[in-house]
Amino acid sequence: MEYKGHLSVTKHDGSNKDSWYSYTCGHCNTKVSGAVVCGYYASAQHTIRWLLCPNCGNGSVLAEDGNVYPGVPFGPNIEGLPENVLKAYKEARNCVSVNAFTSCELICRKILMHVAVEKGANEGDSFTNYLSYLEEKGFITPPMKNWVDLIRQHGNKATHLLESPDEKRAESTIMFTAELLRLIYEMEHISKQYIEKA
Predict the structure, then answer these.
(1) Cα–Cα–Cα angle for 65, 175, 148, rounded to 5 degrees
(2) What Rg, from alpha-carbon coordinates, does the chain have?
(3) Quick one: which H or E segment has residue 107?
């Protein structure tokens, strides 16, 4: 589609229904009726709108494919994570939102390494030793072992096989990772609020 310059850009003033668009903001994860600041209308098939979230004030783009970017990160927010673990978890969630499923699984596997080192394992150790360390220290209990191992297996497949993971598998990897982080970090973080008050 040939760019037609500013003649195809329309500014909105909020006075009609085309000035508003309902979406979930990828910045604050809130369902909003966002303000359409302006739109590029080259044709009926080629339209782009710039949206402003009234909740957090950040901008998003409604692309011609019908998707809003940035997308909403997949998976739950987890409280009480150390900074490096939080950063890796956010990256994994964002990978799913842009269909980067292989990257998601690689990062989830790496999160296991971050957790082990943060809990006292030696950095640079083998991956097997990281998992053994977490088991020995009681962070991975017997009922958790099989599903925590799925994080490892999915990460290994994403690394060593040419076949890409599908969305469902990547989402399951995130959910297993989130549950592990919830049990290791979030529950202790939340419980401290009550223990200190007692």
Answers:
(1) 140
(2) 21
(3) helix 101-118
Question: Which pLDDT score is estimated for 6?
Answer: 67
For 4-103, where are the E strands, in sequence order? 9-11, 20-24, 31-41, 47-52, 59-62, 68-69
Phi, then psi, of 30 in degrees rounded to 5 = -120, 135
User: Does residue 124 contact residue 105 with C-beta atoms inside 8 Å?
Assistant: no
Question: Tokens in use for 7?
Answer: 């003649």
Can you give the pLDDT at residue 41? 76
d(CA 89, CA 95) in angstroms, rounded, equals 10
Q: Please say whether the beta carbons of 89 and 79 come within 8 A.
A: no
Task: Assess whether the previous peptide bond of 70 is cis (omega < 30° from 0).
Answer: yes
State the 10-residue block means of pLDDT for the chain, 198 residues long.
65 79 91 90 77 94 88 92 96 92 96 96 93 95 94 92 92 97 95 76
**What pLDDT sits at residue 43?**
67
